[in-house]
Amino acid sequence: MPTFSLSLPDEAATARLGAALARRLRPRDVVALEGGLGAGKTTLARALLREAAGDPALVVPSPTFTLVEVYDTPRGVFWHFDLYRLETAEQVFELGWEEARADGIALVEWPEKLTTRSGTLLPRERLMVTLSLEGDGRRAILEGDSRFGDL
User: Fold this and answer.
1) Considering only CA atoms, which of 44, 48, 41, 47 is closest in space to residue 64?
2) Is residue 56 part of a domain?
3) In the chain, is it the N or the C terminus that has fewer CB atoms within a 10 Å radius of its CB?
């Protein structure tokens, strides 16, 4: 899988990355968002969802407590999962994981929570976005489909 690294010097750069990703995603895609607390996973997801919806003022709450939020957009149905509070990987099925995978686009914060004894519930074909703090900004490492290589 190709790997790309991007410097995101400010919040606007993170928003631009989210918008660029939104324009390339299609049904059955999975975007796994990795990074520690405060690394920018929800910021990136929020920008992505606003672009997909065509609404820069769209209210996009963090799904930390609801665990999943669903957005019906002109680009498809987006399922925004925040799995931080999941106790077992199998609990994701109660949140609509199969429906999201069937015809939606899944954004998954804390994808490591989908690890089971026998592997991961994440599909092999996915885009991994790892965010980390870097100076006053962030660094994004994207691993996956080559259609994201020129972001």
Assistant:
1) 41
2) yes
3) N
Strand pairing class (137-143; 127-134): antiparallel
The gap from C-alpha 53 to its chain's centroid, in whole angstroms, comes to: 15
pLDDT tens per residue across span 75-117 = 999 999 999 999 999 999 999 999 999 999 999 999 999 998 8
**Range 49-56 contact pairs with CB under 8 angstroms and sequence separation of 24 or more:** 49/18, 49/22, 49/73, 49/78, 49/80, 49/107, 50/18, 50/19, 51/18, 51/19, 51/22, 51/23, 52/22, 52/25, 52/76, 52/78, 52/105
pTM of the entire predicted model? 0.91
Q: Which residues pair with 106 in a beta bridge?
A: 30, 79
Six token digits for residue 44: 């990136």
Q: Is residue 115, in this structure, part of any structural domain at all? A: no
The sign of the CA dihedral 109, 113, 115, 116 is: negative
Beta carbons of 19 and 43 less than 8 angstroms apart: no
- Quick one: tokens of 59? 């209210």
Reduced to 3 states (helix: H, G, I; strand: E, B; else coil), residue 95 is helix
> Which domain CATH number covers 41?
3.40.50.300
